[in-house]
Amino acid sequence: MYRFFVCALGIAGTVLGQSVDSYISSEGPIAKAGVLANIGPSGSKASGAAAGVVVASPSTSNPDYWYTWTRDSSLVFKSLIDQYTTGIDPTLRTLIDDFVSAEAHIQTVDNPSGGLTSGGLGEPKFNVDETAFTGAWGRPQRDGPALRATALITYGNYLYSSGNTTWVTDTLWPVIENDLGYVVSYWNQTTFDLWEEVSSSSFFTTAVQHRALREGAAFATTIGQTSSVSSYTTQANNLLCFLQSYWNPTGGYITANTGGGRSGKDANTVLASIHTYDPAAGCDAATFQPCSDKALSNLKVYVDSFRSVYSINSGIASNAAVATGRYPEDTYQGGNPWYLTTFAPAEQLYDALNVWAAQGSLNVTSISLPFFQQFSSSVTAGSYAASSTTYTTLTSAIKSFADGFVAINAQYTPSNGGLAEQYSRSNGSPLSAVDLTWSYASAVTAFEARNNTQFAGWGAAGLTVPSTCSTSGGGGGGGGGSTVAVTFNVDATTVYGENIYITGSVAALSSWSTGSALLLSSANYPTWSITVNLPANTAVEYKYIRKNNGAVTWESDPNNSITTPASGSTTENDTWR
Ligand SMILES: *[C@@H]1O[C@H](CO)[C@@H](O)[C@H](O)[C@H]1NC(C)=O
Ligand SMILES: *[C@@H]1O[C@H](CO)[C@@H](O)[C@H](O)[C@H]1NC(C)=O
Ligand SMILES: *[C@@H]1O[C@H](CO)[C@@H](O)[C@H](O)[C@H]1NC(C)=O
Ligand SMILES: *[C@@H]1O[C@H](CO)[C@@H](O)[C@H](O)[C@H]1NC(C)=O
Ligand SMILES: *[C@@H]1O[C@H](CO)[C@@H](O)[C@H](O)[C@H]1NC(C)=O
Ligand SMILES: *[C@@H]1O[C@H](CO)[C@@H](O)[C@H](O)[C@H]1NC(C)=O
């Protein structure tokens, strides 16, 4: 049934490398075709899906994945946009433009999480005809808008630098601005994690939100859309600070979710590292770069947590690759290894090897020592130049370790090369949704990383973690404390098509963003109203703005200001200035 039977025990690195080469040369094109087959309107397995819509899997029952998730779609299109913008595949332009149009529309679809400016961007999935999915679900999931912004910014940077400035500014930027504004407004609220099970704060979500705002600030500056840049940067700094809190120094790993009641060992963390990889950031631990000591320590703890839970891993040496899943306590569809989670450690390690090669050295610290000791029991903390035998010993063993994860997936890939979601923990046969788009995309990106294919970074180099974490737009206070309901009434006459919004100095008022400013109700026109939960006992500044078909008009100076009460609620009565 399987093409590759690779025994990870005692196999020489080069033999393993050759069998992995051979798997990649056959599986690479199958994986790329598998991605494209699941994208409407003309993908061979996506018949009925709208143009540019990524179907998660053609499986329509047990499980039914005939939907489009913002997370999966954005990760998939990020890999296609990387291929297009680096010239690897010049044929993808039309498909990418279809994706932009599809997402621009989906952003406007009212759904159970809200509307465009009232939280609806956090809706995790839609029907493949771009209508809202209204059944019960784990919502919202706040990684989607960040991942979509990252994919679109990659495209925008490429187009803008090739001289296509008008379309980027007029058509692409408003879509990106919606997503960045959402992240600014909602990053400090609880979210369902990427596996749609735990509602708390989630490392993957925080990491990709940080990335989106960081590169969003740079992109907005590049294209001259600067009105919200300072709020992107402020909240990016807040996110970078919050990101550090997931590190568990005693266990030597990143706790994936603040809730959930599990060990917290989770592919969430490895996926975060590879999807926030920046080749220019070296082995920076503040952003958990793939070769950082924290991410390597975390990788070991994550991988080791699966050694004894899957019987297909039994008998494999304690320093060799094994099949891995989402998290060791998983029971979904039997709680099995996943292809995409087993490719993830390989990709992280290939990224690490590429950075060490570029830097001509690697560092072993007290945090990463247990990871490196798997490959040389005598290694000690220190810096090892590429000319040293320690460097050669470690990097060649790590390359074999990385290849081992690909070899495990190869062993359990059926002869037609199809990648389902999972494979059996007891006999390795494929399980759950067939032809999972994200499984194929994870193969594509892992193979590219092994090949040291370089994609653009996002500004992760040289960041400084703030010394104290804040949740506000700077000086507003209110971190994590109680809130009070504040009703804002403003008398404002408007013309047809014009609406009144509010934005202000705290995250709950979108941190001075215009893109994610909050829409007031005109039910008592000409009085416009909204009730917002604001941090208690806090000085808050705000202004009303008018929006008409994208044009923004600010109220005249000065800023309005209030100090919220310590408890209860209050009403502000204003007149548009
Ligand atoms: C810019 O790119 C968009 C998206 O592909 C395209 O529709 C538009 O025609 C391009 N404009 C120019 C001037 O090339
Ligand atoms: C909000 O941010 C603060 C400061 O980083 C953090 O302590 C708190 O856990 C965050 N809450 C959520 C839900 O993100
Ligand atoms: C190793 O550590 C030194 C000193 O902290 C640092 O300058 C260098 O960039 C590090 N190299 C790598 C590959 O992490
Ligand atoms: C690896 O890189 C080479 C050179 O850039 C390219 O020709 C080849 O297609 C790449 N292979 C994969 C699997 O990405
Ligand atoms: C209103 O607040 C913003 C953001 O803090 C600030 O940049 C601006 O100068 C303030 N306006 C006035 C008139 O003080
Ligand atoms: C605003 O108007 C409401 C109802 O007319 C009133 O109860 C409230 O006290 C007013 N708020 C202020 C700050 O004057």
TrEMBL record:
Gene3D superfamilies cross-referenced by the UniProt entry: 1.50.10.10, Immunoglobulins (2.60.40.10)
Q: Which Gene Ontology MF annotations are present?
A: glucan 1,4-alpha-glucosidase activity; starch binding
- GO BP terms, alphabetized: polysaccharide catabolic process
State the residue spans of region: Disordered.
554-577
The record's listing under InterPro entries reads: 6-hairpin_glycosidase_sf, 6hp_glycosidase-like_sf, Carb-bd-like_fold, CBM20, GH15-like, Glucoamylase, Glucoamylase_SBD, Ig-like_fold
> What sequence ranges are listed for the domain CBM20?
478-577
Q: Looking at its record, which EC class is this enzyme?
A: hydrolase
Residues reported to bind substrate: 137
- Is Glycoprotein a UniProt keyword of this protein? yes
Q: Where is the composition biased (Polar residues)?
A: 556-577
* UniProt xrefs under PANTHER family: GLUCOAMYLASE, TREHALASE
Family membership? Belongs to the glycosyl hydrolase 15 family.
Q: What is this protein called?
A: Glucoamylase
